[in-house]
Amino acid sequence: MGPYVPSAYLLSLFDKNDRRLKAWYKTHWVYDDPDEGLPPGRQVGDTVRTSDFNPPPDSMLYLHPACKKYWEYGATRDINQADSYKGIIRYRLAETYLIAAEAYMRLGDQAKALEYINPLRRRAGVPDLTELNEDILLEEHARELAFEQDRWFTLKRMGRLVQHVRQYNPDAAPNIKDCHVNMPIPQEFVDLTGFPQNDCYR
């Protein structure tokens, strides 16, 4: 499985004062173990930089920003145990607010839409929105619900999946096709029924 890290696009959406950025993301790493041998001129607490090494070790490839929503603080587990016991996020009140804001936006009631989305902004310590459209809504959706497993469904529902990936995910852009808006049908079902597999997966 490839690395599961916030993209440059996602991180660019956050105002520097947005409390969600600090609460939910680790944007840099620091030296914390003097026994591992610190580079010359560096001490515990300094930010790790690739320029500290010549050449950078392979481990530097893993120093990406990270999402902290599922981190288990204080957990006592073996260092090689990668699985997590923290519950997954099934539903959040913030998602309800975003759904209501979208509904009122699509009904043309900007005042009511803003009434639902701005409490999320206030909680995050950033200014209220004064207008809402689909692009602004998708950006707020990303800030609030990233890594909670519903972005694909939201973009598909809005008809924006392929366009969004091509515009904001340079690693995936060359490979995504229009038919990727559908997931593969389980092969067992195809074998039993003769139902044709979705185009991208034949």
Word description of this protein:
- This protein is mainly α and 202 residues long.
- The chain has eight helices and two strands, in the order ααββαααααα.
- It has a two-stranded antiparallel sheet.
- α3 runs antiparallel to α4 and α3 packs antiparallel against α5.
- It is globular, with a radius of gyration of 21 Å.
- It starts with 7 loop residues before the first helix and ends in a 9-residue tail after the last helix.
- The mean pLDDT is 88.
Mean pLDDT score: 88
Query: Would you identify the regions where 5 or more consecutive residues have pLDDT less than 50?
Result: none
Shape: globular
The SSE string, one letter per element, is HHEEHHHHHH
Helix fraction?
25-40%
The amount of beta strand, in percent, is under 5%
SS-based structural class?
mainly alpha
Alpha-carbon distance between the termini? 22 Å
Q: Calculate Rg over CA atoms.
A: 21 Å
Number of helices: 8
Instruction: Please provide the count of β strands.
Output: 2
Please describe the biggest sheet, giving its number of strands, its sense, and whether it closes into a barrel: 2 strands, antiparallel
How are the strands of the biggest sheet laid out side by side?
1-2
